[in-house]
Specification:
This protein has helices spanning about 60-65, 120-125, 130-140, 155-160, 225-240, 260-265; strands at about 10-15, 20, 25-35, 45-50, 65-70, 75-80, 85-95, 95-100, 185-190, 200-210, 215-220, 245-250, 270-275. By secondary structure, it is of the alpha+beta class. A hairpin with a 7-residue loop joins strand 3 (about 25-35) and strand 4 (about 45-50). It is elongated.
Amino acid sequence: MTRDASKFTHISPKNSGHVTYGDNNKGKILVVGKIGMNPSTFIENVLLVDGLKHSLLSVSQLCDKDFLVSFESHNCFIENKHDKNIKHIGYRTNNVYMINLDKTSNHVQCFLSKDNDSWLWHKRTAHINMDHLNKLISKDLVIGLPKLKFEKDRLCAACQKGKQVRVSFKSKNIVSTTQPLQLLHKDLFGPSRTMIFGGNYYALVIVDDYSRFTWTLFLTHKRDVFHAFKKFAKIIQNKKNLNIAFIRSDHEGEFENKEFESFCDENDIERNFFCT
């Protein structure tokens, strides 16, 4: 809360409400809004209180908003709980920690370069394993690397996302289709670095789900996919005296386009897409 209306960048009127001071006097709440120099350092839900002598920042409310607040002998740090980026730095003056919002800029994170924090060096060295960092120190292999004890006392969010693996789908012991051409899987390979016989650089692979029989159609250009499949579909349906019911592919442009959509609508073929 503050009494200085000039600090606000966004305000909304507040019709009622009071703040009770330590001497039991009350100040009327005039507006609520945001203060700060830029969106990365905004402080939200700030009250403009009539008669307030000092601007106050609630530590408990910062913690409720998923910020970490730490105090040292001369400074205090307000950082984002998720990405560990410092949002504000306060300086101790007469036993009170003060934040100068006028000096806060988009480059608040530059203060991190002064800190010999082990997790900061973990980021600087391309998220290397902590055990490997300890080996680098013990053998003095990196110039300028401080003599710190690197411990994995928390989880690095970037490492967790980068090393996260996808759970494999369980294998199916049964065939979902009941006859040939009921479902065709198709995918395009290319361009190949080596030209295939006939001057082709692409290959359209079509797999029948029921029989697992595979056809490979060699193409010169990616734009030939539709015409090659249209010709293939006509031949194979006449040959087998069966109709294609479903075709499945990825979302690439050679499969997901108006030509394929019109062809499938005219021939009652349903298209299925899978994520890549």
